[in-house]
Amino acid sequence: MAMRDFFERQTRARRVTGLLILYFILCVILTVLAVNFAVIVFGVIAFSEDGAASPEFLADPRLFLAVTGLTMAVIAAGALYKIRKLSRGGAYVAGLMGGRAIDPATADHKERVLLNVVEEMAIASGLPVPPVFVLDDESGINAFAAGLTPGTAVVAVTRGCLTQLTRDELQGVVAHEFSHIFSGDMRMNLRNVGVEGSNPLCSTKEIGDLAIC
Which of 110, 123, 198, 210 is least surrounded by CB atoms within 10 angstroms? Predict the structure, then answer.
């Protein structure tokens, strides 16, 4: 039953990913159309004597191509800017999410358990031990790994993970995040977030997708 549920969740995740890509493409198309519509409306108001007749240049296909090209360039520039911003390292990304770095010398029992679990998973996977963050304001059970390389990666969990999961369950969550670090998925996630966040019609939260791992 558990294995079947795993594959069902995998299939659902692929479906959701496909829908997100489709939504992003639709957002870009809608943005281009909205900008072109705004240009036409402005042109009619600014250059038409009676406010009804459209100037001839507004019907020129080259205007549509120019506006579309400029809009796409702005979206691309925004994507590059966000990707560069998110490339500062996993600690920066965790900070944007409201994460707090756990002091390696913490006396908090639950945080101590989390640090031990992360260290165990690092040894098991042959990866460097990453800094660990906790999202104190998040009561749900969730986690994410962020960073472009294993050397700049961090692992972050919500407060809900610490308070609601057993050690074995917490170990499973952390192991899952290490799989993202090991396979390089987190690098792709950061770039996807940068591209999606560059479009104002698509951006709902700075890096909210990272928390859905």
Answer: 123
Which residues are catalytically annotated?
Answer: 177
Residue 96 lies in a domain: yes
Same structural domain for residues 127 and 41? no
State yes or no: pLDDT of 203 exceeds 60: no
- The verdict on residue 208 lying in a domain is no
CA nearest 131: which of 158, 91, 172?
91
The CATH number given to whatever domain includes residue 176 is 3.30.2010.10
pLDDT at 38 over 50: yes
Exposed e or buried b per residue across 156-181, where buried means at least 16 C-beta atoms within 10 angstroms of its C-beta: bbbbebbeebeeeebbebbeebbebb
pTM: 0.60
pLDDT over 60 (residue 169):
yes
CB 128: neighbour CB atoms within 10 A? 13
Q: Do 139 and 159 form a contact (C-beta atoms < 8 A)?
A: yes
Asked if residue 160 belongs to a domain, the reply is yes
Quick one: which of 166, 152, 141 has its CA closest to 94? 152
Query: 117 lies in a domain?
Result: yes
Closest to 180 in 3D by CA, of 133, 138, 212: 212
Start-end of H helices in 54-166: 61-86, 90-96, 109-125, 159-164
Domain count, the chain: 2
Answer for the pair 75, 31: CB distance below 8 angstroms, yes or no: yes
